[in-house]
Amino acid sequence: MPLLAPPLALYVHMPWCVKKCPYCDFNSHGVRGEPPYAAYVDALLSDLDADRHDFGGALQDRPIVSVFFGGGTPSLFAPELIARFLDEARARLPFVDACEVTLETNPGTVEHGRFDGYLAAGVNRISFGIQSFDDDKLKRLGRIHSSTEAEAAVKSAQDAGIDNINLDLMYALPQQTLLGALNDVDRAVALQPTHISHYQLMLEPNTVFAAHPPPLPDDDTAWAMQEACEARLAEAGYAQYEISAYAQAGRRCAHNLNYWRFGDYLGIGAGAHGKLTDTSTGDIVRRWKTRHPNTYLEAAGKPARIGGHAAVPADELAFEYMLNALRLIEGVPLDDFAARTGLPVEQIAARLATGRQKGWLENDPRYLRTTPLGQRFLNDVIGSFLA
Ligand SMILES: C[S@@+](CC[C@H](N)C(=O)[O-])C[C@H]1O[C@@H](n2cnc3c(N)ncnc32)[C@H](O)[C@@H]1O
Ligand code: SF4
């Protein structure tokens, strides 16, 4: 099957936070004074223009299917600046009708009235970094908000008419009990968001928590929390569709689904990653932007804004595809593997057979899907597709 151009999304990185959290390894920087928000939006637009110029034909006739403002803390940017970016981006690239536009929000950064502005700007989905509803845990995680403030922020978005809301929760927190994890899920469900992301807290290298590890629940306890929370979420109408993602019917995140299905995306902003399929050359190219906000601002729109680029080598394509697709509970049609990687399915036939023998993959000749056992040992399953 020939390589086909997949859907194209737009990721926009906003690199500042009020304060760096001790567990976080995202490209985020605690603010000192007032960051140059307006100049950053100008740099984003120059970046977009330069990417359009660089990628030229590979972007032709490909509307943007979703936009995601990620961070850092995008909600530090005033609605007027988000509106300016979206208006200008739409003038440069067509957006599909009903394009999903998500903005990540720290509940500690949103004063009254902010959400009306985001909605008017074209944002139609808000993702809140809640993490926990236990005030002691929030303190331990270095968060800048209380549980009451988090609940008020979610209600204020709902009152403004934003009807598509995700809450990020983390579990396996320092000294957390199973009951504590379930209580966080219950408080999240009580707010009736359309989507809940439920991440296991990871000790990431080069973070304060990696240098001074807090006492975390062991692997078996963490697994028990994941299973109990998954069941509680299912009872409340949130179906798991990816390792960490749960949604009400019809409310899966289009932007993340595109990543997991090995779609394409432009990455605009400091440290943002992009992936683009060039059907004319048969290459799948990854490109990322320089990480530090100051360097990025200085390089606005110039070649120096590019941190690096690399075509995905043919012998890594199958692994890269699985790294994304096998996270999806329902899996993907095997035909998609061929269309999005340009590789024949025969190339992975032996590995598929081994995965099925081990009970990691369902025995379906047309679909690629993990069994519950495969989900538990997902890293091994994905690793089996390494060159
Ligand atoms: C960019 S942040 C979301 C928005 C905003 N920055 C905030 O934290 O409120 C993305 C999410 O990743 C998750 N996350 C960050 N660091 C993590 C870690 N070390 N382990 C697990 N999840 C993590 C958190 O749930 C966080 O809300
Ligand atoms: S607010 Fe979010 S992005 Fe910023 S440091 Fe904390 S978890 Fe990371």
Summarize the structure.
By secondary structure, the chain is an alpha/beta fold. It is about 40% helix and about 20% strand. Bound molecules: S-adenosylmethionine (SAM) and iron/sulfur cluster.
- CATH homologous superfamily designation of the largest domain: Aldolase class I
Percent helix, as a range, is 25-40%
**Apparent shape:** globular
The CATH topology label of the largest domain is: TIM Barrel
Number of helices: 15
Molecules bound to protein: S-adenosylmethionine, iron/sulfur cluster
| Overall SS class | alpha/beta
What's the CATH C level of the largest domain? Answer: Alpha Beta
Descriptive tags:
alpha/beta; TIM Barrel; Arc Repressor Mutant, subunit A; 38% helix; binds S-adenosylmethionine; binds iron/sulfur cluster
Description:
The structure is a single chain. This protein is of the alpha/beta class. It has 2 domains: 8-258, Alpha-Beta Barrel (TIM Barrel); 314-387, Winged helix-like DNA-binding domain superfamily/Winged helix DNA-binding domain (Arc Repressor Mutant, subunit A). The protein has 15 helices and 16 strands. The protein has helices at 37-55, 79-92, 114-121, 135-140, 147-159, 178-190, 208-211, 219-235, 254-260, 293-298, 314-325, 334-341, 349-357, 372-376, 378-383, and strands spanning 8-14, 16-17, 29-30, 64-71, 95-105, 125-131, 165-171, 195-200, 239-242, 245-247, 264-268, 273-278, 283-289, 306-311, 332-333, 367-368. The strands form 4 sheets. The chain has a 9-stranded mixed beta sheet with strand order 9-10-8-7-6-5-4-1-11, with helices on both faces. Helix 1 (37-55) runs parallel beside helix 2 and helix 2 packs parallel to helix 3 (114-121). The protein is globular and about 55 Å long. The model has no long low-confidence stretch (mean pLDDT 96). Iron/sulfur cluster binds at residues 17, 20-21, 24, 26, 28, 71-73, 106, 129. Iron/sulfur cluster binds next to loops.
